Amino acid sequence: MIHSLWVGVTTVGAIGLFSGLARSTTLRGKIQCEKSWSSSIVHVVGLAVAIAAALSINNAYAAIAVGVLIAALCVSFVTDVRYGLIFDVVTIPCALFLGTFAWFEGTLVQALWGGATCAAIILLIFLMSTGRGIGLGDLKLAACIGLALGVRYGVIAVGLAFIAGGVHGTALLLTRCAKKGDALRFAPYLALGSGLAIVASWFAV
Questions:
Q1: Helices marked H in the chain — which ranges?
Q2: What gap in Å lies between CA 107 and CA 117, rounded to an integer?
Q3: What phi-psi label fits residue 111: left (phi over 0), alpha (psi between -120 and 50 degrees) or beta?
Q4: What digits encode the pLDDT tens for the residues 24-61?
């Protein structure tokens, strides 16, 4: 119980910090920043997943790292849907925290492999699409996912994100809710893929 409480507090604090940084960035960029029930729902769902992860992960430090990742995913979900942007003020501090955390835990090599692998997957798509299919913000967010989840579950998260994005994008095209060439905001799919990967790790033997 104490385990999940600390993770819950960490996630709430990280969401507050990342939201504040993102809000200050939108204000400096003169982007209208609004609060909405949808963003609150995303944050509540993220908190619930973080607490569930805390109850299932034996290592308290690993659970806190996942909580921080979920906070970054929640904020990036909202900013990408609303503005089409994933802010460096969210992803870079998240990556630095996760890297530092892994260094203290003695798992820095595994974390770096995870971050590099997930970032490389996004970089490949970025180069193949000449930057039209996906952005560098997605790359940085994917690196955070790999740093927190490692190679195995990081790749699972990114793979599931592409599957979810492909299915949703195809559905939008078939229903004529979108046309070929329209931008697809990818942070929500990365958040979904990460959530599913975290759930999958609960059942790992």
A1: 2-28, 37-56, 60-83, 88-105, 108-128, 136-174, 187-202
A2: 16
A3: alpha
A4: 766 555 445 445 545 566 666 666 666 666 666 666 67
pTM of the model: 0.83
What three-state secondary structure class fits 145?
Answer: helix
Distance CA 139, CA 71 (A): 17
CA 56 from centroid of its chain's CA atoms: 19
Domain count across the chain = 1
The token duo for 120 is: 């490389």
Give me the mean pLDDT over the 114-135 stretch.
87
What is the three-class DSSP state of 177? coil
> Average pLDDT for residues 166-183, to the nearest whole number?
72
The CA-CA-CA angle for residues 40, 5, 112, to 5°, reads: 80
Domain extent, residue 38, equals 2-202
Distance, in Å, from the CA atom of 54 to the CA atom of 41, rounded to the nearest integer, reads 20
CA distance 175 to 88: 34
Residues 78-88: what's their mean pLDDT? 89
Q: Which residue has the higher pLDDT, 203 or 107?
A: 107
Which pLDDT tens digit goes with each residue over 91-113?
999 999 999 989 988 899 999 99
CB environment 130-150: b (16+ within 10 A), e (fewer): eeeebbebbbbbbbbbbbbbb
